[in-house]
Design brief:
This protein has helices at about 5-10, 115-155; strands spanning about 25-30, 35-40, 50, 60, 65, 75, 80-85. By secondary structure, it is of the alpha+beta class. The protein folds into two domains: about 5-85, no CATH class; about 110-155. The termini are far apart.
């Protein structure tokens, strides 16, 4: 039973066989796999859009953005009407072109053109890198200075006295070296 038949049944009407069923003129799939339908000539701004549920029933599209299979994004209002269509331009990968070895000479400078904005950006980045490098060099110099001072301090101290060790006594003479109190 389709929607029109359900409505007729609820209203208590009988449909004749010459009633033409309503047809949907466009359908589209979301990235998540949901089916969207519209009675408009296509998915254009102002078209009312319905979501087809698993049981075949249709509900208006929810308000918000929905990503489509083709990467475009449809923006809906609360009634399921398309407010905006955001088309994502596919970015074609650019393959790096490697110049032939004979074209580049390490001894010759290479000329290129930069916009003023790109030039200023590069100057700022170089200044930041210089600042970071100078900070790192200063930290290394301070660490080196501290290590040199510690080595000089330790070098100026006298060496430790050697530890005196006794030769162990042989087992049979172990008690010979001891003075035992005399017994009465």
């Amino acid at each position: 039973m389709n929607k029109l038949q359900k409505i007729a049944e609820i209203l208590g009407l009988t449909l004749s066989s010459n009633v033409v069923e309503e047809t949907l003129s466009a359908e589209m799939m979301t990235k998540d796999g949901a089916k969207l339908y519209t009675e408009a000539e296509g998915f254009v701004v102002g078209a009312a859009v319905m979501v087809v549920m698993e049981d075949g029933s249709m509900v208006p599209a929810m308000a918000g953005e929905v990503e489509m299979e083709d990467g475009s994004i449809l923006v809906f209002d609360e009634a399921g009407v398309i407010l905006e269509i955001k088309v994502v331009e596919p970015v074609e990968p650019v393959e790096p072109v490697e110049p032939a070895a004979e074209e580049l000479n390490d001894d010759e400078p290479v000329a290129f053109t930069l916009s003023e904005e790109d030039y200023n950006t590069l100057v700022e980045r170089i200044a930041k890198l210089e600042e970071v490098l100078l900070g790192a060099v200063e930290a290394l110099n301070n660490t080196n200075k501290n290590l040199v001072e510690k080595v000089e301090t330790l070098s100026a101290q006298p060496a430790a006295e050697p530890v005196k060790t006794r030769k162990p006594l042989k087992e049979e003479n172990a008690l010979a070296g001891l003075k035992l109190p005399k017994r009465n």
